[in-house]
């Protein structure tokens, strides 16, 4: 999958998840929640893409290990980045749940589309 397509897919799948979770559960205004979802992805997605490129030349086990570690790091980074953007605190469960759910959603979409 080419980078612009991967980024678009990520934004199309994760932004609604972040918006729904943060606006309905976290009582963040919908526009702010959507903007936060887009912003955290614009920070983490290029880094994830660049990192994963370094794992593609090695054995499959190394790629999937790198992939899992990178996705976990993205979930942590996005949860922490959500806090100042939404007024939530790092000890609140919502940024962590929203990040994990949003990233699982885009990961599943990418796998289903063969990327």
Tell me what you see in this structure.
This protein is mainly α. It has helices spanning 3-25, 30-53, 60-86, 93-112. Helix 1 runs antiparallel to helix 4 and helix 3 crosses helix 4. The longest helix is centred in the middle third of the chain and has 27 residues, at 60-86. The termini are close together. The mean pLDDT is 92.
Reconstruct the topology from this structure.
Layout lengths: L2 H23 L4 H24 L6 H27 L6 H20 L3
Helix pairs in contact: 1-2, 1-4, 2-3, 3-4
Key words describing this protein structure:
mainly alpha; single chain; 4 helices
Task: Identify low-pLDDT runs.
Answer: none
Anisotropy-based shape: globular
DSSP strand tally? 0
Radius of gyration, rounded?
14 Å
Could you spell the SSE succession in H and E letters?
HHHH
Largest sheet: none
Helix-and-strand structural type:
mainly alpha
- The number of helical segments is 4
Q: Tell me the span between the first and last alpha carbons.
A: 5 Å
Strand content: under 5%
Mean pLDDT: 92
Question: Share of helix among residues?
Answer: over 70%
Describe the structure concisely.
The protein is mostly helical and 115 residues long. The chain has helices spanning 3-25, 30-53, 60-86, 93-112. Helix 1 runs antiparallel to helix 2 (30-53), helix 2 packs antiparallel against helix 3 and helix 3 (60-86) packs across helix 4 (93-112).
């Amino acid at each position: 999958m080419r980078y612009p397509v991967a980024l678009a897919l990520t934004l199309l799948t994760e932004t609604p998840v972040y918006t729904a979770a943060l606006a309905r559960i976290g009582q963040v205004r919908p526009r702010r929640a959507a903007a936060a979802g887009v912003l955290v992805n614009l920070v983490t997605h290029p880094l994830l893409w660049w990192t994963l490129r370094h794992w593609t030349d090695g054995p499959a086990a190394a790629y999937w290990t790198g992939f899992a570690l990178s996705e976990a790091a993205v979930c942590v980074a996005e949860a922490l980045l959500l806090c100042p953007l939404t007024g939530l605190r790092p000890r609140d469960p919502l940024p962590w749940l929203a990040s994990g759910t949003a990233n699982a959603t885009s990961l599943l979409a990418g796998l289903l589309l063969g990327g």
